[in-house]
Amino acid sequence: EPQEAAAFERIWAPFGEEDPQRSDSHRALADSMYGSRLPQLAALRVPSLLVRGEHDLVTAPQVVERYLADAPNAVVHTIAGAGHFPSHECPDEYADVVTDFVTRVSR
């Protein structure tokens, strides 16, 4: 996927690392982007759903891991082939995922 690779390079080139998603510098970026909200995850008292795209270059893997570790009753669904906006890229599948989740937790 040349376009995806080019986008990745533009985003992460300033870090000067081959794979910043697995590095400490990316963790610092994730903390600066999401850090103020991540501590609030443990306070969630309702089931929550994070829908992400398989090729999401914005939401760091560390954020997903932290979400699953810290949020009680957290569920993550990854939509194959989608990027950062699965609700726009795969609207039918996204709607099905959200509908299934809401149906399941509302029983």
Features of the shown structure:
2 strands; mainly alpha; 5 helices; 107 residues; single chain
Write structural notes for this entry.
The protein has helices at 2-12, 24-34, 61-70, 86-89, 91-105, and strands spanning 48-53, 74-79. The relative contact order is 0.15. By secondary structure, the protein is mainly α. The protein has a two-stranded parallel ribbon with strand order 1-2. It is flat and about 45 Å long. The model has no long low-confidence stretch (mean pLDDT 79). β1 (48-53), α3 (61-70) and β2 (74-79) form a beta-alpha-beta unit.
Tally of helical runs:
5
Strand content: 5-15%
Low-confidence runs = none
| Rg estimate, integer Å | 15 Å
Largest sheet: 2 strands, parallel
Distance between the termini: 42 Å
Element-by-element helix/strand order: HHEHEHH
Order of strands across the widest beta sheet?
A: 1-2
**How many β strands by DSSP?**
2
Structural class from helices and strands?
mainly alpha
Roughly what percent helix? 40-55%
User: What is the mean pLDDT?
Assistant: 79
The backbone outline, from C-alpha atoms, is: flat
